[in-house]
Amino acid sequence: MRGVVLLSVLLCATCHLAFSFTDGLVRNGNFEFAPKQSDMNGTVVIGRYAVPDWEVSGFVEYIKSGQKQGDMLLVVPEGAFAVRLGNEASIKQRIKVVKGLYYSLTFSAARTCAQEEKLNISVAPDSGVLPMQTMYSSNGWDSYAWAFQAELEVAEIVIHNPGVEEDPACGPLIDSVAIKALYPPRATNKNLLKNGDFEEGPYVLPNTSWGVLIPPNIEDDHSPLPGWMVESLKAVKYIDSNHFSVPEGKRAVELVAGKESAIAQVARTIPGKTYILSFAVGDASNSCEGSMIVEAFAGRDTVKVPYESKGKGGFKRAVLKFVAVSPRTRVMFLSTFYTMRSDDFSSLCGPVLDDVKLLSVRNPRRLM
User: Fold this and answer.
1) Are residues 161 and 6 in contact, defined by beta-carbon separation less than 8 angstroms?
2) Angstrom distance (rounded) from CA 168 to CA 171
3) Using an 8 Å Cβ cutoff, are 230 and 238 in contact?
4) Torsion angle of alpha carbons 293, 294, 297, 303, nearest 10°?
């Protein structure tokens, strides 16, 4: 397959040189520790273990920020270095994990000269394809999250580009590979939805200001945003309060691709009982301006919540009252419109969703 990047987590019982981890970058995950000059031929890495803490194969380049390829400037998102995976190239690293626990990988990727690049992410034997045709950030870099459940005590992270381009150097830049343990929250009597405040989610790289993309759930058996599914063609963006305006707590979700960017969860309900779905809608203070509408769905009921954004932060609260018609009710949110940031007119953005709660109502007549 042309221009495809394969990122797989192969779980093995006999892997050696596995490293324990804490939440954050894997060892040399930002590739700031360079190969020796004797292990380089220009920018091309030669030698299987030339990049410290990684094992490489195929056409791998070690790229310095500001380096040019023809007229194209290669930009590195964090620090000064990244790797580029050319034809049939791969990098891998083994990490000690806790069997049965859920983990989320975060990594940054950018297209270069290959326009058909995709990210194929898998835990053997499962895999999913993440197309990179849509770039959500104007600087050319996006961070992605992908989750897996550890079946053994060692996970082997493999990032592979099996694409074959006319120019063997064409391929994606990879940087900032990080990992985070996930602890999926449960529904409570205070909220029938799991992780309604979005506080549990993938690792957000501290030195990046573009958030983390949560890919469509059809590409990911285990959601990096516990409790939630991305039921759409495009990703949603996971944002943090250090870089964005967030209505509640430290994390929220930005619906960045109109109706192609939807998030959903199925909750247990009692048919005939009245429920209240409440949530916050706002903007991320990222120059995302204009008229926005968030559509909320609960079973057969829906509400459209308009929000006028000045791109400087702020939010409003909304409520949807409904009567459950089945033991399971699908709650879903999407943005009606596509929106571009006013400061660059090329970065996709949208309304922010946060503080989602679902509660049953004992005396529905009091609300009438």
Assistant:
1) yes
2) 8
3) no
4) -40
Chain-centroid distance, C-alpha 245: 18
Beta bridge partners of residue 213, listed in sequence order: 144, 237
Q: How many CB atoms lie within 10 A of CB 88?
A: 15
Tell me the C-alpha distance between 29 and 220, whole Å. 22
In whole angstroms, give the CA distance from residue 261 to residue 255. 6
Residue 368 has pLDDT above 50, yes or no: no
What digits encode the pLDDT tens for the residues 147-194?
888 888 888 888 888 777 778 788 889 999 999 999 988 999 999 999
Percent of the chain whose predicted confidence (pLDDT) is above 90: 56
Residue with tokens 């949530």: 279
Q: For residue 71, which amino acid is it?
A: D
Q: What is the 3-state secondary structure (H, E, C) of the chain?
A: CCCEEEEEEEECCCCCCCECCCCEECCCCCCCCCCCHHHEECCEECCCCCCCCCEEECCEEEEECCCEECCEECCCCCCCEEEEECCCEEEEEEEECCCCCEEEEEEEEECCCCCCCEEEEEECCEEEEEECCCCCCCCCEEEEEEEEECCCCEEEEEEEECCCCCCCCCCCEEEEEEEEEECCCCCECCECCCCCCCCCCCCCCCCCCCCEEECCHHHCCCCCCCCCEECCCCCEEEEECCCCCCCCCCEEEECCCHHHCEEEEEEECCCCCEEEEEEEEECCCCCCEEEEEEEEEECCEEEEEEEEEECCCCEEEEEEEEECCCCEEEEEEEECCCEECCCCCCCEECCEEEEEEEEECCCHHHHC
What pTM value is reported for the model? Answer: 0.90
* Measured distance CA(148)–CA(91) in Å, rounded: 19
Torsion of Cα atoms, 119 then 123 then 126 then 129, to 10°: -10
328-352 pLDDT, tens digit each: 999 999 999 888 888 877 788 999 9
Contact by Cβ (8 Å): 306, 291 = yes
Instruction: Measure Cα distances from 153 to 94, 104, 157 in Å.
Output: 10, 16, 13
DSSP bridge pairs for 104: 147, 180
In this predicted structure, the answer to whether residue 14 has a pLDDT above a threshold of 50 is no
